[in-house]
Design brief:
3 strands; elongated
């Protein structure tokens, strides 16, 4: 009986949310498909964070991780480069870098031109653009369930490799 009451209350909350959402978005020129997608993303966020459906978050994050591992199945050279690279930086900066570390762009905080940077289409669909970044070098992304990176979506490096930039403080 308690479950039924919870579901009824949740259904009413969802309907009220969509009514409020419709009022806010009527001014924007969005296609019905775009509006439906935004509703869907908000519903996913509502279920995960308001109802504490962490199992749903875990399932979606696992699907996104699976999506990102599929290219590794078909490109053996790329897979070997990642598997045998020094992902935990055993070597000090003065010593020799691994092949993978040499491929990461130098003197920048951004992933532009990095062969390990990618985006998850599933994460973008379920969570939105700000959770879609993924780094093959680190083996995790913004959507990862355990220790997400949080900065890959906008192209910022999370690995810290080749960031030898001296930042001048402007006061």
């Amino acid at each position: 009986m308690n479950l039924i009451n919870t579901l009824k209350r949740g259904y009413k909350d969802i309907l009220e949310y969509f009514k409020e959402f419709k009022k806010r978005w009527e001014d924007y020129e969005l296609t019905p498909i775009q509006r439906l997608h935004i509703h869907f993303q908000n519903l996913i966020a509502f279920l995960i964070y308001d109802w504490n459906w962490t199992w749903l978050d875990f399932i979606i994050a696992s699907l996104c991780e699976l999506e990102m591992s599929i290219p590794l199945l078909f490109d053996a050279e790329f897979r070997n480069l990642i598997n045998y690279s020094d992902n935990i930086q055993k070597y000090p900066i003065d010593e020799e870098k691994s092949k993978a570390q040499l491929l990461i762009p130098e003197n920048t905080f951004y992933c532009d031109g990095c062969p390990f940077a990618s985006r998850s289409k599933l994460a973008r669909f379920f969570y939105g653009y700000q959770f879609a970044g993924y780094c093959y070098y680190l083996g995790k992304g913004d959507f990862s369930y355990i220790k997400p990176t949080d900065i890959l979506w906008d192209g910022c490096k999370a690995c810290g490799i080749n960031e030898d930039i001296e930042v001048e403080d402007e006061i």
